Backbone:
């Protein structure tokens, strides 16, 4: 847990221990801690995804016990950042920020959210002594909830890229298991599984975060590429990055037409309808593809880690933490923290999992009776060793992702070559970083 | 003069035109009555067991009802405000001579053409500084940018059609201009006022971009709500179409009422 | 002289409207000009700084802006001729005598597309043009056309909906023009020639011209404004194949959060619009 300690910072850990000591481990109860804040309403943005439905279903118990009302404002992912940014710059009503790992730099640098240590210092009485922050997967806590060695949020909706495959289709084509490398996927599985209007693979590539996170970055890392080199200059023209991008172009022949219009919904749906044999998607969609209500292939679904590239596994990493908003008043901040703490607690992790969420608590995955959740082994494996800067997490990401989305899509459509596209992205990306002050030394090269 | 054959081609043409205009609405309504499973049937089915579940869910569980009420409050308020401000201005433009009149016309017509995004950006920042985001009043005010010109145009036109002799007579009896407008001209201009009100309502009700950018929850409008169903991992097509139907019905009714004047309104009086 | 009243009276009548419109219409524009001269990023409000005309330079030299502009005019160039051709055909059919009932019905149905909430048109498009369960492919005899995911098809789909929604407008404008042709003139012409084309060209066209010019200018303005329908249908995709100018500015301002650059783009768009409006007013409101 050494990394974790570093990242929490000495003060945070000390104060955490101190509060734990004061509360003494006994006598603390959620109901008591929440008493001063009963009747407070907490506003939070939720996404239209399974993990949030799970929390919503569990919520009555929390509201009953605490008297705190949680007001959920639902948004599609693509609107969630814009909605929250507009709320925070306006000093709006949100008491909790729901932060995608790539938004973290933004929220932290704008001081829209409070560091966890500050919340703890401010409200020592509401700290659950059983918080056990070491129980979160360190990689996940660091990437989803931390920025510049400070923890702000606790991971709530946690994703790793996984390979979902249709065992029945693969068996029909004579395969015993999924491909272990991207190369194999393209050269062996691709031709064998693409026929009769069915496709071997679908890579969600719609021009929004999906293009940059799920599609572009996914082919960059396993081939040894990356967005930036150590000097924060574009690394997209490197041989490795180009190999990855070129690979994506070639793989497209085994994907449905119009893959550039596929978002998560279309991809998951194509898989669920049995039109596509394999997808690499977030763990969060597991509950959807195995539910008979939404999936025709529920019985055939199997999960594997993402295929490996020449540079190793490097699965996509993504996910959300919730942090206390600095714009909220005191009672709202305390109530917000109580909710976050409750929703991400080790105690509730099992129920969250069973209702379709994916907790980031290590302890829950050590429990018995998880055979039904086929994604667990692959997920746990990928969280041991992932790339936190899978997408750079600095405050400039919202601008850069727009650039990547535009030119990444143009590459896929063949409107520009991978080299031309990489040049365009590189120039524009460096212009953004230049004006942000990274090259003049005004800003540390942190991502 | 017309032969039977050309009569039949005429009828066939008219029927085709009607069908093309109406079919999307038919499809919208039928889709709104489908369950998700039926809605995702490929190829689509035309005969199925209808259900009102989408409407129930949309209205009462997802809060579409509230956004419809928001839209109603906003559209009606902005219309009333546009009339209060616009009718006297229209009267002045129709009846008085003054300097700068031409520039005023120009300015009003320009407002009809400006892309909402031009105003949405600064309006957002201003509303943010004044703490007016997500408030009904914000949309009520910004919708004036297109409602006020419409009201002024149509009503000015209407006032012009009223003979001068009437107010001349009243003036000789010592009536003020305001009394002349209110007592003599306004009653005669009522058809134009009504039409401009209908337009103002339709445009405000249909508006999406401002609603999307300037509201969040409290003042969220129905079109902005319909859009927020559009993502997620499982697109609820039936519910989206149910919401769409609820949004479209009132404007269609109003449009049919004002159908004769619709063209005039859309061209701001350029085509009589 | 008729119409001469005191300035006070004029102001009393027109003042409230002018002030009202100035507050909501002009103040924001001034603010936009200010923003456009600054580095103004919503997620970096700590470092707002004056940068002069840099944003404008970026817009003027950025291919993406002009591509979006070109795309917008390309849409206009393809959709408008279709709307005029179809609209003229509909207007001529409706202008013929007889069949009153069905024609009334037809006129009423023409009103519907124009009034439909633009955002709903886009949502309807998503449902009807879906590759798998969309009714359009079914009506095309079980075609397997990928409408939303293919750049050209998506563009064609946008043209379809634009034509669907606005051909009725063109038709009714032209119909209004046709009814202005004095009956006796038209009849006399018909006695002289059998060619409908000749009648159209030499008798009816002069009466149609004002309407056509109105259509031309208003459709141009509306295409520059086009946002709602495309936003709900394709969001500008796939790639940037349907990213028209208003969508693009929205993306820069509210997704990239670069309000300064977006404001500069908006101001340039405004200037283009004002020139357009000038022409419009010159043509139509000479009498004012």
Residues:
């Amino acid at each position: 847990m050494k990394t974790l300690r570093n990242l929490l910072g000495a003060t945070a850990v000390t104060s955490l221990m101190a509060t734990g000591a004061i509360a003494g481990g006994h006598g603390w109860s959620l109901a008591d801690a929440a008493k001063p804040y009963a009747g407070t309403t907490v506003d939070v943005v939720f996404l239209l995804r399974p993990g949030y439905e799970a929390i919503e279903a569990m919520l009555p118990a929390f509201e009953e016990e605490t008297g705190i009302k949680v007001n959920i404002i639902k948004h599609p992912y693509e609107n969630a950042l814009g909605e929250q940014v507009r709320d925070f710059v306006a000093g709006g009503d949100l008491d909790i920020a729901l932060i995608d790992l790539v938004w973290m730099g933004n929220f932290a640098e704008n001081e829209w959210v409070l560091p966890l240590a500050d919340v703890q210092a401010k409200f020592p009485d509401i700290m659950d002594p059983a918080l056990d922050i070491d129980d979160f997967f360190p990689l996940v806590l660091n990437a989803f909830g931390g920025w510049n060695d400070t923890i702000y949020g606790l991971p709530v909706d946690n994703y790793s890229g996984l390979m979902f495959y249709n065992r029945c289709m693969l068996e029909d084509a004579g395969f015993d298991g999924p491909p272990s490398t991207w190369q194999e996927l393209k050269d062996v599985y691709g031709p064998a599984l693409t026929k009769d209007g069915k496709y071997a693979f679908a890579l969600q590539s719609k021009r929004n975060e999906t293009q940059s996170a799920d599609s572009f970055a996914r082919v960059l890392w396993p081939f040894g590429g990356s967005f930036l080199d150590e000097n924060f200059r574009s690394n997209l023209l490197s041989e490795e990055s180009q190999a990855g991008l070129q690979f994506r172009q070639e793989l497209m022949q085994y994907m449905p037409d119009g893959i550039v219009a596929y978002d998560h919904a279309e991809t998951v749906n194509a898989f669920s309808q049995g039109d596509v044999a394999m997808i690499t998607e977030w763990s969060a969609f597991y509950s959807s593809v195995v539910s008979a209500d939404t999936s025709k292939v529920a019985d055939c679904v199997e999960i594997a880690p993402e295929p490996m590239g020449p540079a190793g596994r490097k699965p996509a990493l993504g996910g959300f933490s919730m942090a206390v908003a600095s714009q909220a008043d005191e009672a709202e901040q305390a109530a917000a923290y109580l909710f976050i703490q409750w929703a991400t607690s080790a105690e509730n992790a099992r129920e969250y999992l069973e209702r379709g969420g994916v907790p980031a608590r290590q302890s829950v995955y050590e429990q018995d009776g998880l055979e039904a959740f086929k994604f667990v082994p692959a997920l746990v494996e990928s969280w041991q060793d992932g790339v936190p800067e899978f997408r750079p997490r600095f405050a400039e990401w919202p601008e850069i992702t727009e650039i990547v989305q535009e030119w990444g899509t143009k590459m896929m459509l063949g409107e520009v070559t991978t080299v031309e596209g990489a040049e365009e992205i590189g120039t524009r990306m460096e212009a953004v970083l230049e004006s942000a002050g990274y090259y003049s030394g005004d800003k540390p090269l942190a991502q | 003069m017309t032969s039977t054959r050309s009569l039949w081609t005429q009828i066939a043409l008219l029927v085709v035109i009607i069908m093309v205009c109406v079919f999307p609405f038919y499809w919208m309504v039928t889709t709104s009555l489908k369950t998700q499973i039926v809605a995702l049937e490929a190829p689509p089915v035309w005969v199925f067991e209808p259900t009102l579940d989408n409407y129930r869910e949309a209205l009462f569980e997802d809060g579409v009802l509230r956004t419809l009420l928001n839209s109603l409050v906003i559209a009606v308020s902005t219309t009333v405000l546009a009339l209060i401000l616009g009718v006297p201005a229209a009267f002045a433009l129709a009846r008085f001579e003054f300097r700068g009149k031409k520039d005023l016309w120009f300015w009003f017509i320009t407002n009809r053409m400006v892309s909402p995004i031009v105003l949405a950006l600064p309006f957002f920042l201003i509303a943010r500084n004044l703490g007016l985001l997500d408030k009904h009043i914000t949309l009520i005010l910004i919708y004036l940018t297109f409602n006020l010109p419409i009201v002024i145009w149509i009503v000015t036109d209407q006032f012009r059609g009223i003979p001068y002799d009437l107010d001349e007579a009243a003036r000789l009896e010592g009536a003020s201009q305001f009394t002349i407008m209110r007592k003599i001209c306004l009653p005669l201009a009522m058809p134009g006022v009504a039409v401009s009100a209908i337009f103002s309502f339709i445009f405000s009700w249909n508006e999406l971009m401002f609603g999307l950018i300037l509201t969040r929850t409290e003042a969220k409008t129905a079109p902005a709500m319909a859009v927020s169903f559009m993502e997620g991992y499982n697109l609820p097509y039936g519910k989206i179409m149910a919401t769409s139907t609820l949004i479209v019905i009132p404007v269609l009714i109003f449009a049919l009422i004002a159908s004769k004047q619709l063209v005039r309104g859309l061209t701001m009086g350029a085509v009589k | 002289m008729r119409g001469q009243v005191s300035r006070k009276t004029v102001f009393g009548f027109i003042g409230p409207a002018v002030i009202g419109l100035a507050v909501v219409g002009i103040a924001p524009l001034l603010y936009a000009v200010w923003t456009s001269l600054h580095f103004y990023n919503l997620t970096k409000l700590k470092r707002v700084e004056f940068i002069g005309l840099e944003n404008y330079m970026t817009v003027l030299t950025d291919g993406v802006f002009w591509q979006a502009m070109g795309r917008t005019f390309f849409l206009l160039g393809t959709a408008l001729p279709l709307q005029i051709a179809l609209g003229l055909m509909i207007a001529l059919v409706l202008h013929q005598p007889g069949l009153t009932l069905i024609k009334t019905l037809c006129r009423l149905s023409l009103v519907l597309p124009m009034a439909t909430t633009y955002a709903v048109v886009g949502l309807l498009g998503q449902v009807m043009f879906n590759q798998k369960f969309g009714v359009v492919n079914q009506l095309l005899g079980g075609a397997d056309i990928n409408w939303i995911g293919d750049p050209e098809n998506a563009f064609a789909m946008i043209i379809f909906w634009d034509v669907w929604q606005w051909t009725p407008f063109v038709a009714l404008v032209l119909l209004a023009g046709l009814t202005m042709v004095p009956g006796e003139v038209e009849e006399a012409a018909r006695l002289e020639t059998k060619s409908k084309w000749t009648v159209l060209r030499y008798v009816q066209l002069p009466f149609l011209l004002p309407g056509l010019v109105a259509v031309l200018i208003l459709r141009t303005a509306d295409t520059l404004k086009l946002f709602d329908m495309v936003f709900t249908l394709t969001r500008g995709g796939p790639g940037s194949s349907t990213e028209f100018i208003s969508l693009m500015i929205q993306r820069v301002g509210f997704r990239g959060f670069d309000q300064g650059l977006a404001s500069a783009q908006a101001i340039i768009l405004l200037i283009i619009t004002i020139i357009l409006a000038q022409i419009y007013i010159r043509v139509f409101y000479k009498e004012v």
Notes: The first helix of chain C runs from residue 7 to 36. The mean pLDDT of chain C is 88. Residues 63-284 of chain C form a domain with the MetI-like fold fold (CATH 1.10.3720.10). Chain C is about 75% helix and 0% strand.
